[in-house]
């Protein structure tokens, strides 16, 4: 199966655990997953295998946080995100991940800088952007980046931080958004031959490790203070954006 050696299996197991933690505990915690997977599998195969792992982790996250999603935000983001998925599908035919990644990194860093300026310089009571274009713009960007590079985590972090959601609602909203959008990506990914019978078999083999990571994420989230949670997800978003630049 993908001709993996012992190191390859260890890396995939680690990625499965990290994705589980990221989905139920600390969004952005799995920032190393994309480069790790691409380092042991062919680039296009790594995208498909990772999508399967993400979907399985979504099942745990969406199930556990089924009462904690803010559906107003999910529904505001989904139409533009789906348009972004379609755009990303066609973009994958002409643009490589290597060309897209630095663009994503620059956009995310710019949004993080604006968020920092808004909360630290202008004060925490400054009005958050609630206009339609904010949700549409970030929803579309999330759709494009998740379709082309499985890299929408930092974009969602920016949006949900701006909405000032409590940590449980933050994770629940993110979990349900990605649960829906990742399933919508499946037919497009299959059409591009990113997913295959072999990739699905490998994903299912990782199910116990995804579950272990999901449990760890839940335990961590229960114990982490809201202020620390906000700081950690912002730091990880910066790290993810910088990683995309290089």
Mean pLDDT reading? 85
Spans of at least 5 consecutive residues with low confidence: none
Q: Please count the helical segments.
A: 11
Tell me what portion of residues adopts beta-strand conformation.
Answer: under 5%
Q: Kindly provide the radius of gyration, computed on alpha-carbon positions and rounded to a whole number of angstroms.
A: 17 Å
Q: What level of helicity do the residues show?
A: over 70%
**What class, by secondary structure content?**
mainly alpha
| Multimer state | single chain
Overall geometry comes to globular
Largest sheet: none
Domain count: 1
How far from one another are the termini?
30 Å
Number of strands: 0
The H/E string reads HHHHHHHHHHH
Could you characterize what this model shows?
This protein is mainly alpha-helical and 246 residues long. The chain is built from eleven helices and no strands. α3 packs across α9 and α5 (97-121) runs antiparallel to α11. The longest helix is centred in the middle third of the chain and has 25 residues, at 97-121. It is globular, with a radius of gyration of 17 Å. The model has no long low-confidence stretch (mean pLDDT 85).
């Amino acid at each position: 199966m993908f001709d993996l050696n012992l190191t390859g299996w260890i890396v995939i197991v680690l990625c499965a655990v990290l994705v589980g933690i990221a989905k139920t505990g600390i969004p952005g915690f799995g920032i190393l997953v994309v480069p790790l997977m691409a380092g042991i599998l062919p680039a296009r195969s790594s995208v498909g295998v990772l999508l399967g792992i993400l979907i399985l982790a979504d099942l745990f996250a969406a199930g556990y946080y089924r009462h904690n999603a803010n559906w107003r935000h999910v529904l505001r983001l989904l139409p533009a995100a789906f348009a972004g998925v379609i755009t990303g599908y066609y973009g994958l035919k002409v643009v490589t991940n290597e060309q897209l990644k630095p663009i994503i990194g620059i956009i995310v860093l710019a949004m993080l800088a604006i968020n920092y300026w808004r909360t630290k310089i202008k004060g925490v009571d400054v009005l958050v952007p609630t206009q339609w274009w904010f949700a549409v713009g970030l929803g579309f960007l999330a759709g494009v980046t998740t379709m082309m590079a499985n890299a929408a985590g930092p974009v969602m972090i920016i949006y949900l931080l701006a909405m000032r959601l409590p940590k449980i609602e933050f994770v629940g909203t993110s979990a349900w958004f990605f649960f829906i959008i990742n399933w919508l990506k499946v037919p497009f990914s299959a059409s591009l031959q990113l997913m295959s019978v072999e990739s699905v078999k490998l994903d299912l083999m990782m199910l116990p490790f995804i579950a272990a990571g999901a449990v760890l994420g839940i335990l961590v989230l229960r114990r982490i203070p809201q202020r620390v949670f906000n700081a950690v997800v912002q730091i990880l978003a910066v790290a993810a954006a910088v990683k995309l630049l290089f």
